[in-house]
Protein: Superinfection immunity protein
Organism: Paenimyroides marinum
Amino acid sequence: MVIFLSLLNSSLPFENNEITKEKIMAGFVLIFIYFIPSILARDKFQFKLIILLNLLTGWMGLGWLISLV
């Protein structure tokens, strides 16, 4: 029981809340991947609609795929 309680109070290595260069770069990469459909559609007629669809439904995998097509 004592071991279990000490494990609850321990600090895990992935609980680091520091902002590092790696985390910032990973964020930029994820944002780029999220907006790939909008980047590919920049020369299309309905560019604004594709951006709106990507922003509103891109967080779902299906919405992202629809805006990619």
